[in-house]
Amino acid sequence: MGERTANVVPGDIGVTMKGLAEVIHGRREASPETSYTARLLTGPEDKLLKKVAEEATEVVMACKDEDHDHIRYEAADLFYHLLVTLERYGVTIEEFAGELDARHR
Ligand SMILES: N=c1c2ncn([C@@H]3O[C@H](COP(=O)(O)OP(=O)(O)OP(=O)(O)O)[C@@H](O)[C@H]3O)c2ncn1[C@@H]1O[C@H](COP(=O)(O)O)[C@@H](O)[C@H]1O
C-alpha cells in the first residue's frame, strides 16, 4: 500500500467517477513510460487483471481489520483499477452507470 490520503473531503460521486474515467480514457494516448495508467491499458492483460484481484483482496483485509480509513483507501485503489479495466475492455462509464441504474427497484 502507498501513502494514505490526507484531508479527504466528500465529493460528488458522479463528477468524480466521470472525471476519473475521462482521465483514464485520455491515458490511452499517453506514454507508458510516464503513466502507470497507460502501462495498465497497453501492457500485459494479466498485470491489470491480477491488480484488480489484489486490490479486492486488500479491501477484504481492511474490512476484516475494521479499519475505516484503510477500507476507504483500498476501495479507492480498487475502484480506480476497475475503471481502468472498464476502459481497457471498452465498457464506458455511462454503460456502467446504466447497468447500476437498471437495477433500481
Ligand atoms: N486514482 C489513481 C490511482 N489509484 C491508485 N493508483 C496507483 O495504483 C497503484 C496501487 O498499487 P500498489 O499500492 O500495489 O502500489 P505499487 O506497488 O506501486 O503497484 P505495482 O506497480 O506493483 O502494480 C499505485 O502505483 C498507485 O499510484 C492510481 N494511479 C492513478 N490514479 C489516477 O489516474 C490518473 C492518471 O495517472 P497516471 O497513471 O499517472 O497517468 C491520476 O491523475 C489519478 O487521478
From TrEMBL:
GO terms for biological process: L-histidine biosynthetic process. The keyword Cytoplasm applies. Pfam families: PRA-PH (PF01503). GO terms for molecular function: ATP binding; phosphoribosyl-ATP diphosphatase activity. Pathway: Amino-acid biosynthesis; L-histidine biosynthesis; L-histidine from 5-phospho-alpha-D-ribose 1-diphosphate: step 2/9. Its EC number is 3.6.1.31. Keywords: Amino-acid biosynthesis, ATP-binding, Cytoplasm, Histidine biosynthesis, Hydrolase, Nucleotide-binding. It is found in: Cytoplasm. It catalyses: 1-(5-phospho-beta-D-ribosyl)-ATP + H2O = 1-(5-phospho-beta-D-ribosyl)-5'-AMP + diphosphate + H(+). It is an enzyme of class 3 (hydrolase). Its main location: cytoplasm. GO terms for cellular component: cytoplasm. PANTHER family: HISTIDINE BIOSYNTHESIS BIFUNCTIONAL PROTEIN, HISTIDINE BIOSYNTHESIS BIFUNCTIONAL PROTEIN HIS7. Belongs to the PRA-PH family. This is Phosphoribosyl-ATP pyrophosphatase. It comes from Enorma shizhengliae.
